[in-house]
Amino acid sequence: SAVISQKPSRDICQRGTSLTIQCQVDSQVTMMFWYRQQPGQSLTLIATANQGSEATYESGFVIDKFPISRPNLTFSTLTVSNMSPEDSSIYLCSVEDRANTGELFFGEGSRLTVL
Amino acid sequence: QKEVEQNSGPLSVPEGAIASLNCTYSDRVSQSFFWYRQYSGKSPELIMSIYSNGDKEDGRFTAQLNKASQYVSLLIRDSQPSDSATYLCAVNMLTNDYKLSFGAGTTVTVRA
After folding, report:
1. Which of A91, A85, A93 is closest to A113 using CA atoms?
2. What are the pLDDT digits (tens) for A85-104?
3. Which residues are CB-neighbours of A75 under 8 A, at least 6 positions away?
4. CA–CA distance, B59 with A108 (Å, rounded to integer)
5. Residue B4: closest CA among chain A residues belongs to which residue?
6. Which residues 44-103 in chain A show a CB within 8 A of chain B?
7. pLDDT exceeds cutoff 90 at A5
8. Is the pLDDT assigned to residue A13 strictly greater than 90?
9. Distance of alpha carbon B105 from alpha carbon B5, whole angstroms
10. In this complex, do B100 and A105 lie within 8 Å of one another by their Cβ atoms?
11. Do B32 and A102 touch (CB under 8 A)?
12. Which residues in chain A are contacts of B45 at CB distance < 8 A?
């Protein structure tokens, strides 16, 4: 499985500010996925990031709020813009198994608290 | 109907007992099924994947799949306190472009 590093691991942010989360993978991957896990909830896919193209957003998520960059095959960033307390969540970066089995592997997550 | 539904928890079992976790899914043509374990404050960790009907065993874990009933389960034998975690069922769904859809999770507590 890939080794996925995320940072920051946690942060406390002020309302109205923006924060960028970085995700680094130890191998080249075609697609990277960004998930959100709100307190006590399951995982919700925010968007799929492909290198060289615009990210594909799921229903309920928009680029203005969650801009994503994918400059190369091992790195992606997710920005949470104009944060409100409702954005307090764990944000997870994930990649698919190289054998295309559908298995997903996750980074350690970034726990954001918005005051 | 939710796409992936898990039996509501929390589930409390004594040490050494079998913990049984259930999951149903709505997309009849789903082909890939996964169980993730998530310790409190940690990210999900893949523990089992199953693609064919029947049972798949890995150590103390057994996954069972019945596509006709759209049902997948996870059995944890000889439960240990270290198994205390939330278990997430995930399904690749055609209706979701084959992206993984996750259930809400079942929290398991193993009592020593």
Report:
1. A85
2. 999 999 999 998 877 778 89
3. A22, A23, A24, A25
4. 25
5. A42
6. 44-45, 48, 90, 92, 101-103
7. yes
8. yes
9. 8
10. no
11. yes
12. 106
